[in-house]
Amino acid sequence: MKRIIFITIFLPFLIAACSNSDSSVNDPQTHEETTEQRENDDKDNGNDNQQDKVVENSQGTFEMVDLERDLGTFESGPLTIQVSDVSLISGTYTDETVIQNLEKEDVEYVSIGTKISTRNEDILFTRNHLSLTTGAGEEVLSPNEFMSDDLSKDILSETDLIRVFTFFLEGSNVEEIDEVTLHIQSPLNSEGEPVGEDIVVDVTF
Predict the structure, then answer these.
(1) How does pLDDT run across 50-65, given as a tens digit for each residue?
(2) How far is CA 33 from each of CA 7, 23, 28, 89, rounded to the nearest angstrom?
(3) Is residue 51 part of a domain?
(4) How many CA atoms lie within 13 A of 96 on its CB side?
(5) Host domain of residue 77
(6) Which candidate, 118, 139, 10, 17, places its Cα nearest to that of 69?
(7) What is the C-alpha to C-alpha distance for residues 83 and 86, in angstroms, rounded to an integer?
(8) CATH number at residue 143
(9) Counting C-beta atoms within 10 Å of the first and last residue's C-beta, which end of the chain has fewer, N or C?
(10) Does 74 reside within a domain?
(11) Residue 170 lies in a domain
């Protein structure tokens, strides 16, 4: 259920972002003509190029305020985590199931897409190993349980496990955020001891 909800919300943003990265940008003349045409179209439509940033669907209306891709691949002991994308999103839910679980309609959040793999399946690494701080000083101790993918010992047995984590903000407006920091605690062994170093990923928008 949670993954279906996330895909419904986030996939249109990724499609829109990819559609703006066509091969014509390699030709300066073509790129200039395309950019000029887009600007003219945006002025004519009066939308200031918002059609690629706003998605309205059965879950609600959401705007991707900013997006950073390919933040790097990091290792902690036997764990490897690739941070594929980090996005700032503002939106309003209309889906009653989501609203009941979140106890609110209007949201501001940071969404982080990852790919996780490990050389040792006998480790403890959960959502509680992830936390986030913003440049404004707000700290989110863990991803939202309902709107984030799960992590467990059984799941970690898979290779290149794709997981998305949602950090809801309470005291920040994503329009005003210019940087966030993802904190990843080291996985633990069966005795609860760290088997690697903590990871810090700084993201500047």
Answers:
(1) 446 899 998 899 999 9
(2) 34, 14, 9, 30
(3) no
(4) 0
(5) 57-204
(6) 17
(7) 8
(8) 2.60.40.4170
(9) N
(10) yes
(11) yes
